[in-house]
Amino acid sequence: MTTDPPPLQVLVVEDDLGDVALVEGAFAEHSVASDLHHVADGAEALAFLRREAPYGDAPRPDLILLDLNMPRVDGRQTLANIKSDDDLKSIPTIVFTTSAAENDVSSSYDAQANAYVTKPINLDDYERVVSEIRNFFGHTVALPRRVA
To answer: In terms of Cα–Cα distance, which of 56, 74, 75, 77 is closest to 65?
Structure first.
């Protein structure tokens, strides 16, 4: 008897609710069982990841989709915090943003982003790209085991 793997826990760090809805839709339309969690900026993301109030019961994400341009604590600062934290740095973090600027790409990789994906403008392309991310992390890669 085989058991289904636990749902993929995904933290979406995004201030644009339209983009959040598109990501949710792309994750919902597939065989990859997933639980999406959304926060609107980097300060909330770090509180979620560190299980600080009001996120005391937050699950440890298997994957983080991180926008760069957000209020309060932006994605650049958030990425630096995640990758410098021994408890968080193993979580695959995908920069998923509208910027295609070479400086943003190179600085994200310098900060140890696991991938950099520019959000397509076309709706069909957007859904395809999110589906590829979902499939890759849901079916192809081996993810670090969740601890508590």
So the answer is: 75
- The pLDDT of residue 27 is 83
The count of domains in the chain is 1
Q: CATH code at 56?
A: 3.40.50.2300
Strands 115-118 and 8-13: unpaired
HSE-CB of 77 using CA atoms within 13 angstroms: 12
Domain that holds residue 124: 8-140
Residues 141 and 36: their CA atoms lie apart, in Å, by: 18
Q: How far is CA 27 from CA 23, 47, 50, 66, in A?
A: 6, 24, 24, 16
Can you give the pTM of this predicted structure? 0.91
Count of positions (residues) in the chain = 148
Sign of CA dihedral 21, 7, 82, 111: negative
Question: pLDDT by residue (tens digit) across 109-126?
Answer: 999 999 999 999 988 899
Q: For 126, what's the count of Cα atoms within 13 Å in the CB-facing half-sphere?
A: 16
Answer whether residue 147 is part of any domain: no
